[in-house]
Amino acid sequence: MKRFKKMEPVDKGSLVDKVEVRLLAFFKENNLKVGDAIPKELEFAASLGVSRTVVREALLRLRTLGLVESKKHRGMILKQPDIITNFERIMDPTLLGEDVLKQLFELRLILEMGMVDFLFEHKNQKDLDDLEEIVAAEEALSYTANRFSLDREVAFHGKLYQISGNKTLMGFQNLLLPVFEYKYLQEEKKGKGDYKYSKGQFVTHRMLMDNLKVGTPETFRNAMRRHLEPHFDHVFNPPKG
Amino acid sequence: MKRFKKMEPVDKGSLVDKVEVRLLAFFKENNLKVGDAIPKELEFAASLGVSRTVVREALLRLRTLGLVESKKHRGMILKQPDIITNFERIMDPTLLGEDVLKQLFELRLILEMGMVDFLFEHKNQKDLDDLEEIVAAEEALSYTANRFSLDREVAFHGKLYQISGNKTLMGFQNLLLPVFEYKYLQEEKKGKGDYKYSKGQFVTHRMLMDNLKVGTPETFRNAMRRHLEPHFDHVFNPPKG
Question: pTM for this structure?
């Protein structure tokens, strides 16, 4: 039997997809920077040999992604894309699947365990004073010590993210918060929201704070790991049903 | 003088913005799930009292973000948004500012330090065999032991991300890789790419692997921290100029 050469599949990518890629390449090749004006729709349409509608749709996409914006009297300019804003619209927990929710929940634990070196590098007296205030306030409310409460978690851990000095990281924390809250409420509805400690010593926010004051990244990481134990336990030994 | 009541600022949000928000609310209120068909452009336009063009533009945005997709004969359906794909287009290092690049570089260190518990929870014999192969291959190439090489970093650390079992995390790693490479090449161009060890013991990939085999999350985290020391040093004590 005659052996045929392998056929290349037909390119099914849409025109808009192709124009989008070409526009991005154009920005790079011309070394355009944030704030620079870009050519008009009509010019792109002429250069690329496509309709103005196609160019318009590709530019709309880039605008949706925050890569370009329209300025009065200047047409469109390049914009510093805001990574976090891009996430916000799609991070609605009710629109995400169970598996992605679980991964995002895990991601939050990963970030808190991972950012410790940055806390020790950037902490200052003002930060420690703020933390002291947060811890004192929650102690005054005298919650049951070993019961999980979302509000005090947010106040304390949000401050830690802030100390890390990384704005992108802080943005992630804000995005992950609704996921965290949603998962917690979900479990609580099923009567499984009462986080229990399966092992190890209970590490309070005060103990973490003291560790941040006088400890090292190593001691703080171990303390944080024990503090997060109920959540790790929840992830590694999920409640049945 | 007569004190006037404070005036509310005029709502300047665009019609498309408003329609986008209303569409998302509609999906939630009707408890629509991934795969469900949504009403047609014309119906939305009639219900919301806006033009079909406005609805179309809002739907295009949602399509760009991966929240809806067009299906033949079914119109538009809800889609599980792919968090990572959304990032991909805007994560071109040449389009990001210096500050964001630095934050993303730091984020990679945070993820590697933070994911350790998941490595120990999910590792199996196959994973350790794969790692052994990767380490043996790089040793056979006999790179200078304490010189940073992007390729072997990617092979080894990419495998670790895979062992973590978290697909969103793996997606981030893939997104951060170009940033990492870009920053490295940038430094090298300036003659500052020769990562040096400022302190501590040099921890090789083999040592990390052995630690993963017989150690604990605590010992592995300390080893990983020392392994990443050149990068932390680079972030905390950036070369001048």
Answer: 0.76
Tell me if A115 and B114 make a contact (CB, 8 A cut-off): yes
**For residues A116 and B113, is the Cβ–Cβ distance under 8 A?**
yes
Identify whether the C-beta of residue A168 lies closer than 8 Å to the C-beta of residue B104: yes
Q: How far is B75 from chain A (nearest CA, A)?
A: 17
Min CA distance, B116 vs chain A (Å)?
A: 8
Q: By the 8 A CB rule, do A107 and A173 touch?
A: no
How far from A189 is each of A98, A182, A183, B39, B86, CA to CA, in Å?
Answer: 16, 10, 10, 32, 32
Out of A34, A90, A110, the one facing B115 most closely (by C-beta) is A110
ipTM above 0.90, yes or no: no
Nearest CA in chain B to A79: B95
Q: What is the tens place of the pLDDT at every residue in B9-55?
A: 666 568 988 998 899 889 888 888 888 999 999 999 999 999 999 99
Among A67, A85, A84, which Cα is nearest to A76's? A67
Instruction: Please list every residue in chain B whose beta carbon sits closer than 8 Å to the beta carbon of residue A114.
Output: 109-115
Chain B CB contacts of A34 under 8 Å are 97
CA atoms of B81 and B66, how far apart (whole Å) = 5
